[in-house]
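Hello support,

Our group uses your service weekly, and this is the first time we've seen a run hang past the timeout. The protein is Putative membrane protein. I'm not sure whether the cause is the sequence or the server load. Input pasted verbatim:
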Amino acid sequence: MLIAALVIAALAAVLHVYIFAMESLWWTTPRVRATFGLSEADAQTTRSLALNQGFYNLFLAIVTAAGIVAWLVGSPAVGAALVIAGVGSMLAAAIVLIASDRTKASAAVKQGALPLLALIALAIAAL
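Update from on-call engineer: The timeout came from a worker crash unrelated to the input. Re-ran successfully.
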């Protein structure tokens, strides 16, 4: 179950790298504007906010990846702490998103499903 948990956590990290790219690199492109329901003017106005938010997602992915690596090279306590901090923060961000704006429920589920599954799998592995 541990391997499954780490694979799911890795997938969550990859997803958050993609979110980083959308928010920090591609925010004003037509495809990303359509994904987030933004006009060109709104995308330009919120560009610096999205850049910052994207880097938060990248840092969560890095923490999670570092935890996976630490776990695999023989530091399970450090690895567990980092993976739980990373995916736990991803899940918390998804909860904040849905709590702050119910119209973003679909995005929150996409953002939070893998972290939630990773935490559940880690809990089962710890039994």
